[in-house]
Amino acid sequence: MLAPSLALMLYAFVLPMLTFFEYSFYTFRRGKLLDEFSLTTYRRFLFDAYYQTIVLDTLWMATLTTLLALAIGYPLAFALWRLERPWMKRWLSLIIFSPIIVSVVVRSYGWIVLLADQGPVNWILKTSGLAAEPVTLVFNLVGVVLSLAHVFLPFVVFPIYSSMSRIDPALREAAMDLGAGWLRTFRSITLPLTLPGVVAAVQIAFTLALGAFVTPAMLGGGRVLVLPLQVYNATAEINWPVAAVGGLVLLVIAIIVVALCNRLLKYSEA
Amino acid sequence: MTSDVEFRNVSKFFGTHAAVDNISFSVPAGSFFSLLGPSGCGKSTTLRMTSGFEFPDRGDILIAGENMAGIAAYRRPTNMVFQRWALFPHMTVFDNIAFGLSVERQPRDIIRRRVGEALELVGLTQFASRKPRQLSGGQMQRVALARALVKRPKVLLLDEPLGALDLKLRMQMQLELKRIQREVGTTFIYVTHDQGEALTMSDQIAVMNNGRIDQLGSPQEIYDHPATRFVAGFIGNANLLPVQLAAEGAGRSAGMATVSMGGFTFPTQIAQEPTGDKGWIVIRYERIRVGDAARAMPIRTQARVRDAIFAGSTVHYVMAIEPAGTEITVETGHDGLSSPLMQGSLVDIGWEPGVTRLFGDV
Ligand SMILES: Nc1ncnc2c1ncn2[C@@H]1O[C@H](COP(=O)(O)OP(=O)(O)OP(=O)(O)O)[C@@H](O)[C@H]1O
Ligand SMILES: [Mg+2]
């Protein structure tokens, strides 16, 4: 059982990674790829303001997306957990699941229509008097973050929900019995005990957001330049070194985030 | 004597099923009160209504004279020890016990002192910094007890707190609970389905059956004078034997009646007046004398030994009463010297007239 999967991993994952790694040391000069060892690309990613901005924008977008997905996902998970009627539970989980059932292209167009200057959201803002001018919600960071947070909902809600449903109901009763009201019970019992679910949700949402390509491309309208887009553009110009280093930077960030989260998890359980 | 908890005609329905059906009782301050009954009879529901996790559909619950209608769990002067203890897994033993006090915003040094006292009371001082999963069942049980007691409740509620422990530890914890109760003087309401536990520890026992209280009394009253057939059968080991009543009025005198069982006629105490001419008598295993001891009894007959069950300090004999063959179980002490009765042998059995109780045929 183990050998075939190891072989597959080696062929489909480790080998490409090594090739990738090798390309990151090539030289790209005047539109040509040269087989000359250099650290130029690494240096550019570290010190060139252009690349620094891309990396920071990517981190910023992933952070905002994760926070928004958590802010919406945690209460949804809580509602799913507290709902008494099975049919309500079924419907709510279907709604939470729906974004990943729909194709990313279709969903993105949906958001474009919804958030456009003449779209329903702006119409509501205008008629309710909240905004005199249309608010730009699409072809910028806002649209990208909204749409990504939307897709990631199931990945955020279900780990949290599962950690909630593992809590012994007697614990909440015990807290109330000892004099804790709703808020105190939530803060001291429910929240700490669902932290592992939250951490898992953060890991998933953040790493998915780092690698998101179609959504930033469609809803960013060219104004949201994140690393995956930069990598794509680089491959189009056969600039393998930039593509490789961009990919490696994404990988390193993801590894750091996952490691940090695991650290947090251990701390919360100790 | 003042009462700490009082139930007045309390009922609780789940759907159309009455989990608790019009019960009334009052628990004297400082006493050890047990709710005893088989699974599903409504013990936990009664306790949960006292703590405020459930609210009665009918009737009133008073704690220390105050009506608890509409008062939430966290505002009641009761604390609960849960069946599976419900310790907070992410907190240390100290923090578990301190939780109720920190909710009250007690100053830090007071919390430290009172938690220290509680730990000492249950003998867990050196375990303060452990997490619940690093404790044994008995230790977790003590933490749960300390966590509830540290709040100095008027009434401590315990829902089968020893149910998950093994027999040896259970006996040890019974004694310890009783000691702690005497030491702190708090009213304990103790839920159990284990009649032995209830008999050993309680000042008062309410025996529940199907959402009702069948009998309320001291352990001895309940053991010696069961009020219903259910109580008689539930508490201790008792034979329940069908009998025929003698003709109307015959052999009646001051609470006694004459009954017969397949030709064997004898007097019995009346616990519950039968409506027809059929009834049941209840007689405990250990009240029946065998052999020489039986010959000195006012009521006696002969029985054939069918089976002997050895149980260490006692031996249970299943016998058939001659001539009808009614089966009866007899308990005798085992002294380790005399050999048990032979299977198939015919022996004398007998008892005092006061030890059988007659119940109606319902
Ligand atoms: N939340 C609930 N919803 C519906 N029915 C319930 C609920 N809680 C209890 N019941 C029913 O009420 C009856 C009494 O339950 P209760 O838990 O009080 O029994 P118990 O005497 O504590 O039994 P056990 O010894 O098994 O714990 C049972 O028939 C049970 O099925
Ligand atoms: Mg129960």
UniProtKB/TrEMBL annotation, chain A:
Superkingdom as given in the UniProt entry: Bacteria
Subcellular location per the Swiss-Prot or TrEMBL entry: Cell membrane
CDD domains, per the entry: TM_PBP2
UniProt domain ABC transmembrane type-1: residue ranges: 55-261
CC per GO annotation: plasma membrane
GO biological process: transmembrane transport
SUPFAM superfamilies referenced in this protein's UniProt entry, alphabetically: MetI-like
InterPro entries registered for this protein in UniProt: MetI-like (IPR000515), MetI-like_sf (IPR035906)
Chain ranges passing through the membrane: 7-26, 59-80, 92-116, 136-161, 193-218, 238-261
Principal cellular location given in the protein's record: membrane
Pfam families named among the record's database cross-references: BPD_transp_1
Record's bilayer topology term: Multi-pass membrane protein
Keyword field: Cell membrane, Membrane, Transmembrane, Transmembrane helix, Transport
Family designation: Belongs to the binding-protein-dependent transport system permease family. CysTW subfamily.
Name of the featured protein: Putative spermidine/putrescine transport system permease protein
Automatic annotation (TrEMBL), chain B:
Keywords of the record: ATP-binding, Nucleotide-binding, Transport
SUPFAM superfamilies per the UniProt record, alphabetical: MOP-like, P-loop containing nucleoside triphosphate hydrolases
Keyword Kinase on entry: no
GO molecular function annotations of the record: ATP binding; ATP hydrolysis activity; transmembrane transporter activity
ABC transporter domain segment(s): 5-235
Signal peptide interval: none
GO biological process assignments: putrescine transport
Keyword field contains ATP-binding: yes
Pfam families: ABC_tran, TOBE_2
GO cellular component, one term: ATP-binding cassette (ABC) transporter complex
Protein name: ABC-type Fe3+/spermidine/putrescine transport system ATPase subunit
Organism (species): Chelatococcus asaccharovorans
